[in-house]
Write a structure and sequence with these properties.
Blueprint (H helix, E strand, L loop, with lengths): L2 E4 L8 H14 L4 E5 L5 H8 L6 E4 L7 H8 L5 E5 L6 H9 L2 E7 L2 H21 L5 E6 L8 H12 L13 H9 L14 H18 L7 H7 L1
Parallel strand pairs: 1-4, 1-5, 2-3, 2-4, 5-6
This protein binds adenosine-5'-triphosphate and magnesium ion (MG).
Adenosine-5'-triphosphate binds next to helix 1 and helix 7.
Length: about 230
């Protein structure tokens, strides 16, 4: 069961939103998903508590550096995909979670400060590779992208990522009220009412394409051998 960590040391980059959209999409597609909530604001856990039960989706709150291995171990037989939501700051949990991951997703809004937080994660990934030979595949997902205009800041961020040969998902997460409202309403994009949320069909399409791209990068068979060994 692959482990996907969402990381950006800048707060508010859209990590938790990206985790929630992927988790609900994967569960809808029939995968058993466990979200390990290590964000001290516990947005995913609060959303989960406010929601009707969602088939195949489990959220574990209060995940810490000390408890994360145990959660992975305890739930590995019941899980197809683990998603880890990290705090928006540098923390010892970041390196630990990366070390346990099959793929790291770096959500970045098209702005310089966010790109800096993403760069910290990319530097840590490079460091772990250079010092320990630990190569963890990773991708950037652009978040809160305006559906109508491409800003200069977004172009600058894209240029910088291309220069560094960083893999960027073709599907950005668009700025949509549905992606904000879901935290207030609970449930998923498919339990929200089309009359009350604007462009819900586009939001669903966006989430579907985003999840499909991640599934292509992280098929269920890619779990790193050391996970299997450590659990054996
Ligand atoms: N695609 C989007 N469309 C609309 N609103 C969004 C989108 N992505 C994020 N937001 C909003 O932006 C704010 C920050 O997003 P989110 O909580 O996902 O970021 P985060 O990186 O997890 O933050 P933190 O570092 O504090 O954990 C939230 O209010 C969220 O509802
Ligand atoms: Mg968060």
């Amino acid at each position: 069961m692959p482990v996907i960590t969402f990381a950006n040391t800048k707060g508010g980059a859209g990590k938790t939103t990206a985790v929630l959209l992927l988790a609900t999409e994967l569960a809808r597609l029939g995968h058993r998903v466990t979200v390990l909530d290590a964000d001290p604001q516990y947005w995913v856990s609060r959303w989960y508590d406010a929601s009707q039960p969602i088939s195949r989706l489990t959220v574990v709150p209060y995940v810490t550096q000390a408890s994360i291995d145990r959660h992975l171990e305890d739930l590995r037989d019941k899980t197809d995909y683990f998603l880890i939501d990290l705090p928006g700051a540098r923390s010892p949990l970041l390196a630990k979670a990366i070390g346990l991951s099959d793929h790291v997703m770096i959500p970045i809004q098209g702005c310089a400060m966010d790109a800096q937080g993403g760069a910290h994660v990319l530097e840590l990934l490079q460091y772990l590779d250079a010092k320990l030979g630990l190569k963890v595949p990773h991708s950037v997902v652009l978040t809160r992208v305006n559906s109508m205009v491409t800003t200069r800041a977004l172009l600058a961020v894209k240029g910088l990522l291309a220069q560094r040969n960083v893999d960027v998902l073709n599907t950005p997460i668009i700025e949509r009220s549905a992606f904000r409202d879901i935290f207030d309403c609970g449930g998923t994009l498919y339990t929200m009412s089309e009359d009350r949320v604007s462009n819900l069909d586009r939001a669903r399409e966006n989430a579907r394409l985003y999840a499909e791209e991640i599934l292509r990068r992280v098929p269920m068979t890619v779990a790193r051998p050391q996970m299997a060994q450590s659990a054996a």
